[in-house]
Amino acid sequence: MSDVFNLADDLGPLKVIHVHEPGIGLKGVLVVDNVAYGPSIGGVRMAPDVTTEECARLARAMTFKNAAAGLRHGGGKSVLLGDPKMPKAQKETLIRGFCCALQEVEQYIFGPDMGTDEECMGWVKDEIDRAVGLPRDLGGIPLDEIGATGYGLSHAVNVASEYCQLDIDGARFVVQGFGAVGKHAARFLSSAGAILVGVSDSAGAIQNPDGFDIDTLIALKADGKSVIEYPGAEKLDGDRIIDIECDIWIPAARPDVIHEGNVDRLNTRLVAQGANIPITYAAEKVLHDRGILNLPDFIANAGGVICAAVEYQGAGETAALAAIEEKLRRNTREVLEASQREQILPRDAALAMARKRVEQAMRYRRWHIF
Ligand code: NAD
Q1: pTM: predicted TM-score of the whole model, two decimal places
Q2: Average pLDDT, integer, range 144-172
Q3: Cα(255) to centroid of ligand 1, in Å?
Q4: What span, in angstroms and rounded, lies between the C-alpha atoms of 30 and 15?
């Protein structure tokens, strides 16, 4: 694990805690990046190759995402070394052990992330009563089931459409990755009249200029099948999803899928980032120069964490959806206004907005430096 102090700056991290319990094979790290807005929220990532450095980067991303979303929460993240597909009893032991070891760190609220889910958060709640993303049985709002992030994304797209003279009704869109984020984004956009003309998952891609029926695609996935089994669809290699001409292109799968080597293949007017870091900064610059509007991830995909924060306050699904709509619309507009006004990339405008908010909150801390 690398030296996290190489990443330290004027915002954080506040605390880096390594947890090691040899008896149960537990190795994990918690990074509390910044708590100027309140206790940090961030997911627990479980993977065999996670590092302290990755954890610190993800924690910083949460500081910006939560501040940009106007939540009363700072940013943090934790990682657990291990294969998330290990036997359930072993996983439960690790997660219970990890959260108990961090029980005293009240500046961190556990949430789900890659390799952990609602059930894991149920175990955390049982042990230390400090988790979001809980099962419905425990009063949680199942954010992937209701499509919190896809819902927010559809509102961000709606606001952005004004900035690129696009009518959502009849707009053609493409979704890379038909999981929790992608399928709900498709559902909400299609209910506003947009037409899904291309879609992919890990098995490949399909296209149809006349559009796909979203419910049929959702039913295929619910049966454990791939979108490429859609009846009569034209199949493509997964990577060809980048070439499909459309008005809105939505990455909702893996990081770094668009880079300098392939960004010129995108033939669209608006990119809305559902996935985390799906586009490299260099490729974002190319998009900007080509006049393609590009909504950065931590603005456009904040629906999930907003839902989690509302759940933590004890409110329900209706309040969560209202908060997502209000915050996503306001923040998208603020970022795009600043980007236009200052002639800068939307990501730079978003980062400046988030940093300013964190610095404002830090003025009230005991050892502020701004
Ligand atoms: P998911 O596991 O539910 O879905 C991922 C989908 O991507 C699956 O359909 C999978 O088949 C597909 N996929 C995997 N590799 C692919 C590839 N190479 N090409 C095309 N498709 C591929 O995950 P999710 O929760 O929808 O998350 C997707 C992304 O969005 C991740 O980057 C995640 O970090 C980010 N995100 C999720 C949320 C949320 O609320 N779930 C919130 C913010 C950000």
Answers
A1: 0.94
A2: 97
A3: 9
A4: 8
Task: Give domain 148-303+330-351's CATH superfamily.
Answer: NAD(P)-binding Rossmann-like Domain (3.40.50.720)
CATH architecture of 2-61+77-139: 3-Layer(aba) Sandwich (3.40)
Residues of the chain with CATH 3.40.50.10860: 2-61+77-139
Q: Any idea which residues carry the catalytic annotation?
A: 77
Residue nearest to atom 5 of ligand 1 (CA): 179
Give the whole-number percent of the chain exceeding pLDDT 90.
Answer: 93
Longest C-alpha distance within the chain, in Å? 64
Q: For residue 297, give the ligand 1 atom closest to its CA.
A: 44
Atom of ligand 1 nearest to the CA of 274: 30
- For residue 253, the CA-to-ligand 1 centroid distance in Å is 4
* Residues with a CB atom less than 6 Å from ligand 1: 143-144, 148-149, 176-182, 200-202, 238, 252-254, 274-276, 301, 304
* pLDDT at residue 114, as a whole number: 86
**What is the pLDDT averaged over residues 210-220?**
98
369 CA to centre of ligand 1 in angstroms: 38
**What integer pLDDT is reported at residue 2 of this predicted model?**
53
**Per residue in 72-97, pLDDT tens?**
999 999 999 999 999 999 999 999 99
pLDDT at 369: 59
120, amino acid identity: C
Interatomic CA distance for residues 159 and 336, integer angstroms: 9
Q: Is the alpha carbon torsion for 312, 313, 315, 320 positive or negative? A: negative
Any residues with CB less than 8 A from the CB of 347 and at least 6 apart, and which? 281, 284, 294, 296
Residues of the chain with CATH 3.40.50.720: 148-303+330-351
